[in-house]
Design goal:
Length: 331
């Protein structure tokens, strides 16, 4: 008579899988969860859509206005003004809070004290900061725009609290003023955190081609016969996106990734040897990559070109390092 034997694997109960030694916890993912939560707020999306419909067409109609370009910082400054200006209200309101914490003066009195002066200066600085931030917001997209809107709403709330603090301070209610000032600084810190996320995590307003240097040798990019006159063509050479353009026998080549927000310049229009980015309307000269109109702050890198044996060859800004003679002779 045959006997049936269960294998040890069949008789043992399945044990729960052990957690990996470096399991991801909420302590290291809370910031990602926060951004997702902010982005999914229904009311925020509704406000975002309403403001976008109202402000973006206005920017597009007046994007040639010099004052509007200067709000971004423009080609003359070289980077956005908003991050630099944002340090002013943060620093001034921090100073006001520190003075309130260390003040051991006599009974409250009406009028402006030293902390009140810093509070008022911070309010004035925050207005200029808000205008530049709003200008930058109109040239952002998708989740960046929604998170940026929440960042702006928090800063608006902080401004309101600071104005209330200044008002109560001037009427002699310094205890209430201190509480409101501390609350304003707390909200400002939260807004600053989201601003840091936009810059350092998402790369908003960061030069998208700041590290582009290759190819470091001459590389075939396109057959000469495949490049029509007066028509932008996108090519790729060793992973770098390049815009080629030929006009009256002269060949032009610049980085195809817009330095402002990463748009593909080859999808834009070219007029008078100037290409317009299809995303936010930045204009670049094909001859030297210089910014002809913002919101871009940095020029497009120029790619060197030559024609060899019917091929258009390209090379970046840095040639490949030379090898020593003894290295070249080794098999």
């Amino acid at each position: 008579m045959s006997q049936e034997f269960d294998s040890p694997a069949a008789t043992q109960q399945a044990e729960p899988a052990a957690d990996p030694p470096f399991a991801t916890s909420r302590l290291v993912t809370w910031h990602d969860d926060l951004v997702v939560w902010v982005d999914e707020l229904g009311w925020l999306r509704a406000v975002n859509d309403w403001l976008t419909a109202a402000l973006v067409p206005f920017r597009e109609r007046h994007q040639d206005n010099l004052a509007l370009e200067l709000m971004h910082g423009g080609r003359w400054v070289g980077h956005p003004l908003h991050p630099a200006l944002s340090d002013l209200p943060v620093g001034l309101w921090t100073g006001a809070t520190l003075l309130d914490m260390t003040d051991r003066g006599p009974a409250p009195r009406s009028g402006l004290d030293a902390a009140g002066m810093l509070s008022a200066a911070g309010i004035a600085a925050s207005c200029a900061t808000a205008l530049t931030g709003l200008s930058d917001w109109t040239v952002s997209d998708e989740q960046d725009r929604r998170v940026g809107l929440f960042h702006g709403l928090l800063n608006t709330a902080a401004l309101g609290l600071q104005c209330a603090s200044l008002g109560t301070r001037m009427t002699g209610h310094r205890g209430t003023a201190r509480t409101l000032g501390a609350a304003s600084l707390t909200v400002t810190a939260a807004a600053a955190y989201l601003g840091g996320h936009l810059v350092f995590t998402k790369g908003v307003m960061v030069n998208r081609v700041g590290w582009a240097v290759g190819p470091r040798r001459w590389v075939r990019a396109l057959q000469e016969a495949d490049l029509p006159d007066d028509s932008p063509v996108a090519v790729e050479a060793e992973g770098r996106q390049i815009l080629l353009y030929r006009h009256q026998g002269i060949l032009y080549a610049i980085d195809n990734i817009c330095s402002h927000a990463g748009g593909l310049l080859s999808r834009g229009t070219v007029a008078d040897l100037t290409v317009t980015c299809p995303l936010h309307g930045s204009r670049f000269a094909l001859a030297d990559g210089s910014v002809r109109r913002g919101p871009a702050h940095q020029p497009q890198p120029v790619i060197r070109t030559r024609i060899r044996n019917g091929w258009i060859e390209v090379r970046g800004s840095q040639p490949a390092p030379r090898r020593l003679a003894k290295e070249r002779t080794q098999p």
